[in-house]
Amino acid sequence: MARQISHGSSVPALEHRVAVLERQVAALAEAARLLATALEGTPLDTSELGDTAPTARQAHELLLLPPLAPAAGR
């Protein structure tokens, strides 16, 4: 999956690749945040301890999403 940047790459192609990578990193960061929040817990939480399955499922689904196309206007 890793692709090398060639000397003949066009600026729009490189911008597109960077935009896709930025979105993938944002999705990974959000998944990590969800998992950390679920595992952290606080004494005020009303959910049962160890009930992180729904959050783990949500994080996993987030990571399975295909890369999004860059937003318009970029």
Can you give a write-up of this model?
The structure is a single chain. With 74 residues, the protein is mainly alpha-helical. 57% of the residues lie in helices and 0% in strands. Helix 1 packs antiparallel against helix 2.
What is this structure's SSE topology?
Elements lengths: L10 H30 L12 H12 L10
Low-confidence stretches: none
Considering DSSP H and I runs of 4 or more, what fraction of the residues is helical? 55-70%
Q: Which structural class best describes the helix and strand composition?
A: mainly alpha
Query: How many beta-strand runs?
Result: 0
For the record, give the distance between the C-alpha atoms at the N and C termini, rounded to a whole number.
24 Å
Mean pLDDT: 76
What is the makeup of the main sheet?
none
Rg, rounded, reads: 18 Å
Q: What order do the helices and strands follow?
A: HH
Number of helices: 2
| β-sheet strand percentage | under 5%
Q: Sum up the overall morphology in one term.
A: elongated
Q: In a few lines, what is going on in this structure?
A:
By secondary structure, this protein is an all-alpha fold. It contains 2 helices and no strands. 57% of the residues lie in helices and 0% in strands.
Features:
57% helix, 74 residues, elongated, 0% strand, mainly alpha
